[in-house]
Design brief:
GO terms for molecular function: ATP binding; ATP hydrolysis activity; GTP binding; metal ion binding; ribosomal large subunit binding. With 365 residues, this protein is of the alpha/beta class. The protein has a domain of 66 residues: Beta-grasp domain (Ubiquitin-like (UB roll), Roll), CATH 3.10.20. The protein contains 14 helices and 12 strands. About 3% of the residues have low confidence.
Length: 365
């Protein structure tokens, strides 16, 4: 999974990226400090994996991973090339979902590109640039379809109609992902890799003294806007995340408890990202390796097995499965005991893998 971290200049985007990935992206108090995108791989925090590692003491520990991409800040007019707009737009096409960092804190020492704190104005600026860029993409595709429609090929007529419908909705300010389309029209839309077809999570970057407060007035308009557009909002203090990044696990947990926030901003963001993209993880465990495998919710056992190796899917026989909670609570993590108790299920080709399933695939090629 690849997540693009975007926002206006000086909203704390690169600070947050540094904290999440500890990758050392440049961060400074002036616009367009980030020119080329920065990339960082983050292991997904998962207490289930930690527990299995304690039980099996594996030679290899492989958690699920997310790639964060810190993309250059943009300003109004980015879709027309203002600031570093065109570069921004080309890099964002690569990601699975967009993380829009929005400044919600006051600080006279940090310049805001628009002169004041207004999260709703900021996300509106960004999103309209995405829409304008998509309009240009769709218009080019429409012009091409209309040109080839003259050949009499029906597929270009269907494509032209789909493009016109999408263009009309974008002009109304609607995101591509929220446009009602037929299955055939959706395929055409997805083939254009539109920016507004990607899920969005808004990250409200709050001050340290705002942490734990759920009713911040500055956030309310953004919460309403996100709900109306099928998106999520996560509040994170980039400064606190930066502090957490420099601590060992024990210190980190103590600090989180003192703050009363329950979990780190990274954990919150990852959970929202998985939910928004419809992803889950199943687990494999043994002395050789404890590993998490990320799949789309609704994936059947053979296709899940294919994530490990194509031979597993091709020669799939069955899956031996026990839910993690059952393995932990009823068997102290002992798979053999789970089998003796009859808690390990034998599942076939139609079984849909559930989040947290601990799985052993049987196959023959």
């Amino acid at each position: 999974m690849k997540l693009g971290v975007v926002g206006l200049p000086n909203v704390g985007k690169s600070t947050l990226f540094n904290a999440l990935t500890q990758a050392g992206a440049q961060s400074a108090n002036y616009p367009f400090c980030t020119i080329e995108p920065n990339y960082g791989i983050v292991s997904v925090p998962d207490a289930r994996m930690d527990y299995l590692a304690q039980i099996y003491h594996p030679q290899k520990f492989t958690p699920a991973q997310i790639e964060f991409v810190d993309i250059a800040g943009l300003v109004k007019g980015a879709s027309k090339g203002e600031g570093l707009g065109n570069k921004f737009l080309s890099h964002i096409r690569e990601v699975d979902a967009i993380i829009e960092v929005v400044r919600c804190f006051e600080d006279d020492n940090i310049t805001h590109v628009d002169g004041s704190i207004d999260p709703l104005r900021d996300v509106t600026t960004i999103n309209y640039e995405l829409i304008f860029a998509d309009m240009e993409t769709v218009q080019k595709r429409l012009d091409k379809a209309l040109k080839f429609q003259k050949t009499g090929d029906k597929k270009f007529k269907v494509e032209a109609e789909a493009c016109q419908l999408i263009l009309d909705e974008l002009e109304k300010g609607n995101f591509a992902r929220n446009i009602e389309l037929s299955e055939e029209q959706e395929e055409i839309m997805h083939s254009m890799f539109l920016l507004t077809d990607k899920p969005i999570i808004y990250v409200g970057n709050i001050a340290e003294d705002q942490v734990g407060k759920n009713d911040l007035p500055v956030l309310q308009p953004l919460l309403t806007y996100a709900a109306e557009h099928g998106s999520e909002v996560v509040t994170i203090s980039a400064k606190i995340e930066e502090d957490l990044a420099g601590m060992d696990e024990e210190e980190k947990q103590l600090f989180i408890e003192e703050l009363g926030i329950g979990e780190s901003g990274l954990s919150k963001l990852i959970k929202k990202s998985y939910s928004l993209l419809g992803l889950i993880s199943y687990l494999t465990a043994g002395e050789k390796e404890v590993r998490a495998w990320t799949i789309t919710k609704g994936t059947k056992a053979p296709q899940a097995a294919g994530k490990i190796h194509s031979d597993f899917e091709r020669g799939f026989i069955k899956a031996e499965i026990v839910a993690f909670d059952t393995l932990k609570n009823d068997c102290n993590g002992d798979m053999q005991l789970a089998k003796e108790k009859g808690l390990v299920r034998q599942e076939g080709k139609e079984y849909v893998i559930a989040d947290g399933d601990v799985v052993l695939f049987r196959f023959n090629v």
